[in-house]
C-alpha cells in the first residue's frame, strides 16, 4: 500500500494452505472482464513495493487450508457468477496452482492479476484461465510472457513515453526514470489511469490516459469499482 509494504520473496510450498487478505464478491472493475460479477481472492504479500499501490494486502492473519478457501469461495459465489479473480498482493508469490486447478475442475473461469515478475511450474494451460499482467518492472518472467492475454499499464499525467505512451518512471523508486517492460508486437494493451488519491491529479491522469489510448490505439480501462463505490 502506497510503497509501505515489506518486499516478500516468492514462497515454495504445496499450495494446500495460503495466506489470504480477503475474499469478496463484486464486479470486476478492471481489464478485459470489467463489469462482470466475480469472486475476488486477494492473496497476502507482494514481491514488489510500488509507491502508488492502492491496496492493503498485509493486514490479514488468515491462512486457510485449500478446502477452507474453496468453501469460502463457494459461500460467496452465486450460481450466476462463474468468474474467480486471483489478485493480491502478488498472487503468483504463493503456489496458487492447486487452487487454480480446483477452480477449473469445478467448471469455473479464473483470471489472474499479476505484476508479471513471477511464474509457477504446473500452471494449467486452459482457455478458461486468463492472465492479465500489469507490468511494474523492465523485465518480466520469460515463462509468463507467452501466457499473457492482456497487458494493463497504469498511467499518470506527464509520465508517458512520447513514442508509445507507456510509462517512463519507476514504479518502485519515486521520481526515478525506468523503461518498464514493453509488450510483444500485436499484444493486447490496456491503459488505466493511476489513482493518486487526489481529485485534481486523478482528473489529469484520466485525461492523459485517454489521450494515450486515442493516440496509440490502446483500450482504456478506468477502475469501475471506484466509480461505483464498491470493493
Ligand atoms: C493491487 S494490484 C494486485 C495484483 C498485482 N500485484 C499487480 O500489480 O498486477 C491490482 C491492480 O491494481 C493496479 N493498481 C495498483 N495501484 C493502483 C493505483 N494507485 N491506481 C491504479 N491502479 C492501481 C495494479 O497495476 C494492478 O493492475
Ligand atoms: N472491483 C474490483 N475490481 C478489481 N480488479 C482488480 C482489482 C485488484 O485489486 O486486483 C480489483 C479490486 O480491488 N476491486
Ligand atoms: S505489484 Fe501489485 S500489489 Fe504489489 S505493490 Fe505493485 S501494484 Fe501493489
Ligand atoms: Mg484493487
Automatic annotation (TrEMBL):
Details of cofactor binding: Binds 1 [4Fe-4S] cluster. The cluster is coordinated with 3 cysteines and an exchangeable S-adenosyl-L-methionine.
Annotated positions binding substrate: 27-29, 42, 87
Domain annotation Radical SAM core: ranges: 33-231
Residues that bind S-adenosyl-L-methionine: 52-54, 89, 134-136
One Pfam family per UniProt: Radical_SAM
Annotated EC: 4.3.99.3
Binding site for Mg(2+): 55
Protein residues bound to [4Fe-4S] cluster: 46, 50, 53
CDD domains per UniProt: Radical_SAM (cd01335)
Cofactor(s), names only, from the UniProt record: [4Fe-4S] cluster; Mg(2+); S-adenosyl-L-methionine
UniProt-listed PROSITE patterns: RADICAL_SAM
Record's keyword terms, sorted: 4Fe-4S, Iron, Iron-sulfur, Lyase, Magnesium, Metal-binding, Queuosine biosynthesis, S-adenosyl-L-methionine
Pathway(s) annotated for this protein in UniProt: Purine metabolism; 7-cyano-7-deazaguanine biosynthesis
UniProt cross-references to InterPro entries, sorted A to Z: 7-CO-7-deazaguanine_synth-like, Aldolase_TIM, rSAM, rSAM_sf
Membrane-crossing residue ranges in chain numbering: none
Catalytic activity: 6-carboxy-5,6,7,8-tetrahydropterin + H(+) = 7-carboxy-7-carbaguanine + NH4(+)
Keyword Magnesium: yes
SUPFAM superfamilies: Radical SAM enzymes
Assembly, per entry: Homodimer.
Family from the record: Belongs to the radical SAM superfamily. 7-carboxy-7-deazaguanine synthase family.
Purpose: Catalyzes the complex heterocyclic radical-mediated conversion of 6-carboxy-5,6,7,8-tetrahydropterin (CPH4) to 7-carboxy-7-deazaguanine (CDG), a step common to the biosynthetic pathways of all 7-deazapurine-containing compounds.
Name of the protein in its database record: 7-carboxy-7-deazaguanine synthase
